[in-house]
Specification:
Blueprint: E1 2-6, H1 10-23, H2 35-41, E2 53-62, E3 65-75, H3 76-81, E4 86-94, H4 98-114, E5 119-122, E6 134-137, H5 153-160, E7 164-175, H6 185-195, E8 198-200, H7 205-223, H8 234-244, E9 253-257, E10 263-271, H9 274-280, H10 288-298, E11 301-309, H11 319-333, E12 337-340, E13 343-344, H12 348-353, E14 360-371
Parallel strand pairs: 4-5, 11-12
Antiparallel strand pairs: 1-2, 2-3, 3-4, 5-14, 6-14, 7-12, 7-13, 7-14, 8-9, 9-10, 10-11
Length: 373
């Protein structure tokens, strides 16, 4: 017998957070999160996403054994301001039992119908900075700290429940040796001169912070045209600064300024923490923090997390400045491999941006949609 229980206390929340640790305990590809960070993600007093969203967490039990979880999310900015009648769901994990999957999603359906929403889509998070998509290809590749991993049977469950693919994402990688300066070094100088632009580099995290709000504003402007984009508000800016900036080597944050010192473009690159997080196995102490600090300083693989360019500077070659600055930093750091986070498969402009690096698509993922009748 399957029993679905709503998470209403800290004990159940810890079970929700820790369920994937048992589901993927034998997987060499799953990257565990830090348990304390995940607990904070669902803390209504700490995560500002809860100010604009209704979030309900569910656990599934079969014969008194925990077998699944799901987060049902109604993002009110998306629903009321953007008029997107969507019920979100994410953090969706389950054993290979179709009835468990259906029972969990039935709870999401019920909430969506209660709010008179038109359809449901997942797996997605609260916003565009959260993890997205179920893995459909690349199950034999190690995950990252900013993506979900899942077993191959997940897709079969969606399809059996008559979900249809809503959005497709690709993840690609290339050896740093492919970053030949001849493709952007000359353009770098021409673009700087033509538009009176200049790079801004950092060596200390504290020097990045005064620019962080401007960076998030630029992020909102540059990504506003993408489907289902939910802008970052002022409260979320503070949360993301605390949560993410400290994880990033300041040398890996690149800004481009105009002649008036206004920010026109940025890129955020993160060292790969995958192996370190596997060693930490969800805990910072006693040794997990040392694995993460070592990876931050010495990882030879980097992940291109975000690139943003003001709309009026898009398609003008500004990224040549970013690539040139990254090339110089990565050369000094001895970087060997570069990875790109999930990008919409129909975003041809971003794919053209990377074509000279000969990237290889090594993972694919999708979100799935179903109408709420």
């Amino acid at each position: 017998m399957i029993f679905i229980q709503e998470v209403t206390n800290k004990t159940d929340l810890k079970k929700f957070v820790k369920f994937p640790f048992s589901l993927y305990k034998d997987s060499p590809y799953w990257v565990p999160p830090i348990i304390a960070d995940e607990m904070e993600t669902f803390d209504k007093d700490k995560n500002p996403a809860f100010k604009d969203a209704e979030v309900t967490l569910f656990l599934a039990y079969k014969d008194n054994v925990l077998v699944g979880r799901v987060a049902a999310i109604a993002n009110w900015i998306e629903i009321k301001q953007q008029k997107v009648s969507k019920m979100r769901f994410g953090w969706f994990d389950f054993i290979d039992d179709f009835e468990v999957t259906k029972a969990l999603l039935d709870k999401v359906v019920a909430i969506g119908k209660k709010h008179q929403l038109a359809y449901m889509e997942g797996p997605v998070g609260f916003s565009n900075l959260d993890k997205v998509g179920v893995l459909t290809y690349g199950f034999d590749q190690i995950g990252t700290m900013i993506t979900w991993y899942n077993h191959p049977y997940y897709v079969n469950h969606y399809e059996k429940l008559n979900f249809i693919k809503e959005k497709g994402y690709i993840e690609s990688k290339f050896p740093f040796a492919n970053a030949d300066p001849k493709f952007y070094a000359k353009a770098n100088e021409l673009i700087k001169k033509r538009y009176k632009l200049k790079p801004l580099n950092f060596t200390k995290t504290k020097d990045v912070m005064p620019w962080a709000d401007k960076m998030f504003d630029l992020f909102n402007e540059s990504y506003a045209s993408l489907s289902s984009f939910v802008p970052i508000n002022e409260i979320q800016k503070e949360y993301f600064k605390k949560k993410y900036i400290s994880f990033i080597n300041p040398e890996y944050i690149k800004f481009v300024l105009d002649e008036h010192d206004h920010l026109v473009a940025f890129s955020i690159v993160m060292p790969s923490f995958s192996k370190a997080l596997q060693k930490a196995n969800g805990k910072l102490f006693p040794t997990g923090i040392f694995h993460l600090l070592k990876a931050k300083k010495k990882s030879k693989e980097v992940i291109f997390y975000l690139i943003g360019v003001l709309p009026e500077y898009q398609n003008k070659g500004v990224t040549a400045i970013i690539f040139n600055e990254c090339y110089e930093t990565f050369t000094k750091k001895g970087i060997l491999d570069c990875v790109r986070t999930p990008e919409l498969e129909d975003n041809l402009a971003i794919q053209q941006l990377w074509k000279n690096f000969d990237p290889v698509v090594y993972k694919r993922r999708s979100t799935y949609r179903k109408e709420l009748e």
